Amino acid sequence: MTDPHRHAVAVPTHDVAVEETERQSWDEIIRLVRSLSLEERLEPGYQRDPDWSVRDVMGHIGTWLAEAEVQLEQIGAGTYEGHDIDVDALNATFLEALADQPWEVAWLQANAGRTRMLDVWAACRDTSDESDWWVRKSGVGHYLEHLDRLREWVDELRRRRAPADGAHRPTGG
Fold it and tell me: What single string gives the DSSP state of each residue in 79-108?
């Protein structure tokens, strides 16, 4: 009699808590961003020096998600060299690459980056901590680094929509 498990493919065992926190955090980012108008998404103030808008933070997150996808591909291919990276240098490179890109580019970059990262992570045969490390660094951990400030900035932008005293705000042109 043949062993029924002989040809079974090992299924990666990723941290379920990381998966759930990633999904919940991403969903919150999406809700916050979608609550803003296009003009609000482009308004500087999320961060100062350099000035960042919601577009910039979404592009920043998206480029890190794309980087995680590349690293996960390398893990899967057996060509991964480790995660000894210069975060500041990568941030500078990513910021320069996204300078002055329209909202749609930053938005698509973030969504496509996340989708590809999750697809590759799900297919990754490596069950070491390296694949999970990249998802935490570029995904869920990165979202959490930016979520508090994003919440604050979105709240500030929303408060600007209507005067506190309820008076009609001139639309001026």
Answer: ----S---HHHHHHHHHHHHTT--HHHHHH
In a domain, residue 23? The reply is no
Alpha-helical regions (H) of 37-140: 38-42, 54-77, 87-98, 103-123, 129-134
Greater model confidence, 14 or 88: 88
Q: What tens digit of pLDDT does each residue of 100-119 get?
A: 789 999 999 999 999 999 99
**Which residues, 6+ apart, have CB-to-CB distance to 26 below 8 Å?**
114, 139, 143
pTM of the model: 0.81
DSSP labels, 144-164: HHHHHHHHHHHHHHHHHHS-T
Asked if residue 26 belongs to a domain, the reply is: no
Q: Which residues of 30-42 are buried (b: 16+ CB within 10 A; e: fewer)?
A: eebbeebeeebbe
The residue type at 133: W
Question: Which residue range(s) make up the domain with 122?
Answer: 50-158
| Domain total of the chain | 1
Q: Return the bridge partners of 138, or none.
A: none
Residue 29 lies in a domain: no
Inside any domain, residue 108? yes
